[in-house]
Each structure stands twice: as structure tokens, then as C-alpha cells.
What does this fold into?
Amino acid sequence: MYFKWNYEPTTPETQKAAKELGEKIGMSPTLANLLIRRGIKTESAAKRFFRPMLNELIDPFLMNDMDVAVDRLNDAMGRKERIMVYGDYDVDGCTAVALVYKFLQQFYSNIEYYIPDRYEEGYGVSYKGIDYAKETGVKLIIVLDCGIKAIEEIAYAKSIGIDFIICDHHVPDEEMPPAKAILNPKRPDSTYPFHHLSGCGVGFKLMQAFAKNNGIPFARLIPLLDFCAVSIASDIVPVTGENRILAFHGLKQLNQNPSTGLKAIIEICGLSNRELTMSDIVFKIGPRINASGRMQNGKETVELLVEKDFMRAMAEAGMINEYNEQRKDIDKQMTEEANSIVEKLESQKHLSSIVLYDANWKKGVIGIVASRLTEIYFRPTVVLTMSDGIATGSARSVAGFDIYDAIKSCRDLLVNFGGHTYAAGLSMKEKNIPEFRRRFQEYVVNHIMPEQTQAILDVEAVIDFKDITKKMHADLKKFAPHGPCNPKPLFCTQNVYDYGTSKVVGRHQEHIKLELVDSRSSNVMNGIAFGQSAAARYIKSKRSFDIVYTIEENAYKRNEVQLQIEDIKPSEEPQ
It folds into this structure.
């Protein structure tokens, strides 16, 4: 695929500011300019960015209802009431449940956890879960990564003597549930300074407040930060502010001393003995944690995440890995089916959105299919299937377009909906799908910008190979962890040539292993271009071309730089 390359040349004023900042922090003007592009313009801000400190975490009691939540939790423990930790079946929900359960279990034994079955109970708080809580004597439920829209279910729980503490990060409706406490930084009346915590992050803040209130040293929370890093990476929340602190120290924990369950997953993924990044979580660890909730029941994931015996954890991780293999097969089949449907629908070519429905698709993987279609066609996408007589779906968005608001505009057609800017869930009666498709498309047409439906690479700097030094690579590593609002910097080098040794590689000959030189230096750079073998003939023709890439560490040769090439264009093409 040819991307559109977007590059805004640096103004003289910014060049001067970058030079001054670079001198103060011992960095090249090119990298100092990357900081300025991220809104970091002073020496002190740069130091905070590169060295996030746990003592800079926000006071948890600034969150609405936090004092009420901690008081209710203390009362439950004082009265020896049974407590249930309840969470969603995705990565964010399972890590949140594991974090809260593991921490509280150190101080209190009358506690259990519960993950609803995706297929029997559906998303969020279920009547079945509440009835089970009643039967087992539960008096307090701490619900994580869901619950903000469970108005009727929580009212029912209240009527039978069960209190709820909600720890959620999804956008609330105008009316909120009658819970004892609602911890959600997206509340309309929120006084909390940071609005983009993951569900696990909100759970962490509750535990931080509980620890602070009860004189428990903060150090007791540090071993749980690996769960925060996994949730932040997997739930695709901005890696800025408090999330950056939690992700930075969570990755440190994941690399140095991960919890037993995560250590087993790392082993199963083949990631042992290497430094883990956010990308490893997104592409390897997260999908395996998700697979259990998609293919079986997310409770198995929590069992693994709270496991203390490594041999048992390895056996459980093996089962979850098997679910992931099954999930990949179904995902591939469904994506191919969805692609073929989209290709056959000529009218879709002129539409700004995609809404697909097939009653036979498996509910657990429609979110992945929606993500794949969004990546391929660059349009907001909704994929629906039939579940218990209701059309249930997942929605995924493109950069800068709020799909939650688009779905909310059709709320009178829906049974339920919830989510964030870029991902949402929804359900409706089957008869409403055509009208939903029409109105959703109408909303997208009126609100989406043309550039949001294009494959765009935002180039941050145009450099020569001679600029890529060991120091530059070492300094670049300090920009991690990466994610939304702090992407891996993309660089462009113009007029490069094949050194003569580039070749097509891969099981299906789909990738190119490159050795390149540029026109301004004699440096030879190694690179890999995944899925771009179509460009091989041009590359071998000895003509010059331009590349956009990230600078990575070679996975097989420590301290050696490798370019991961995102796109290749003939130099004579206008960029």
C-alpha cells in the first residue's frame, strides 16, 4: 500500500528553540524538536518526560467518590463482609480484577473474583452475576472496567442488599447507576486532573487510596504495576500524563520481576531474555490474555494472572495459548469473509463507513474483524452478529474520529451501547440494522474529515543515514514507552539505493530484507520492510527511492540499529 506522507518542515523559530533545548539536555536539535512536537518545551518538562517518577502520581483522593469508596471498603472488611471483585472479560478488565484481588487478598481473605461469560451473560454487570453474589453472601461488589451504564442491574443489586463500587473509564450517560461510589475520571463532574486512565488504572487508584488510608507503604503496590502496563498498552489509551508514569514503571516491573502469571505468558510467547516493549504487549501478550475471554471464559485468565506456582501457571498459559491459536484461525476466516462482502458491495466504495452483519459470525472475534477492516479500508467500521436474538456488534474508528459519538447519535435504535473514542460496543434489534446503517453513514459523512479516511504516515524528521548514530539510538529509547499521543517517531531519508544485497524473505516471500546506502554518506543501513515485497523489483533496478521508517534495535544483534521501513516510494514521485 502507498501511504500519503505528511511532513511539516520546522520553522526557523522552532529550529532555534530545538537547538537551545537540545543544548540544555544534551540531545541533537532533531530529537529536541521531537520533544517540542509533543508539547515538551522546557528542560524540566523534558526531565519529567524521560524520567517519570512514581511520586508524581496524582493524589487518588482527588477523584470523585474516592473517600466514599475507601470508607465502604474499610467497613466491609471491618464487618467481615464477603467482597466480590467483578470485571470485564477483556485484557483491561482481567488485569484490573487481578490487580485489585491480589492486593486486597494480602490483607483480607473473605474475597473472590468474577468474570461474566461473554456468550451467556454478555458485556458488563449481569443479573446472573448479581444472583450468584447474593447466593454466596456477597455484600460489596467492586466492578472494574464496566458498570457505568448498568443502571437497572445495580438498582436490582441495591434492592437485595448488595452495594457497588464502580471503577470504570468508559463515557457515562446523563444518568448514572445508584452505586455506593462511582470512580470514573470521565464523569461530567470529574475533579480528577487526568481523564484517560485505563480500567485497570482506575482500579490501581482505588488500591492506592486504600493503602494511603490504611498506612500501607506504597512499595506494596509496585509489584502490581506490570498489570497497569499491560492494560494501558492493550486498551490503547494515551501514553501521556499519569498513564506514562504507570506504563514506564509497569514495563520496568514486567522486565525485571513480573508476576508469576505474566512470566508464564512471556515464556509461552517466546519473549524471555529480551527487553519487553509496549509493542510486545500489544501484539503478543495482550492477544493471549484476550483469547480466553473470546474463546472460553475470561475467569481462566484471572486464574493465571493471580497464580503463585510457576509450573501451574505454565500449564494455564499453555491452554490460553491454544485458545489464541483457535482465535487466530476464526479471526482469519471471518476477516476474509468480511473482506469479500465489502469488495462485492460496489456501493461501499462511495461510503465513508462500513456496517456489516452476519448472524453466523462468532461474537468473540467481531472486534478483531472490525479492527482489521478499519486498518484495510480506513473507514469507521461496525461489525454485527446475532446473540440471544439481538444483533450485537463491535465498532472501531480511524484517527481523530469519535465513533462513540457517532453511535450515540443513533441511540434510539439501540438496546445498549458503550465505549471510547476509538472503540465501542453496541446492540440492537435485527430489524433496526438498515436504519442504523443509513443514519450512522449520514453522521460519518457530516463529521469525518477527508484526511481521516486516508492512510497517512506522519513523518517527524527528514534525516540522512549519517545522523543515525549509537547516541541518537540511545536517546531515542528514552522516548519510550510509546502509544497514542506518543507514537514511535517516523523518519524519512531521501534518495537511498540498494547496496546490492537486498533480498525477498519470509515464508511466502512477502518481506524485503534490505541493505541500503543514501546519496549523502557511505553508511550502510540494515532494514526490514514487512509485507512490501512488491517493491523489490524497483529496489533491485538500482534507481533511487525514499523511505519512511522507525529506528529499532536489531532483535538478533544487541546494540545494532535496524530500520523498520513503513513505506517505499520512487524518489521521482512527488511526496
Remarks:
- Residues 310-344 form the longest helix (35 residues).
- The mean pLDDT is 91.
- The longest strand covers residues 561-570.
- Residues 84 and 141 are 5 Å apart (CA to CA).
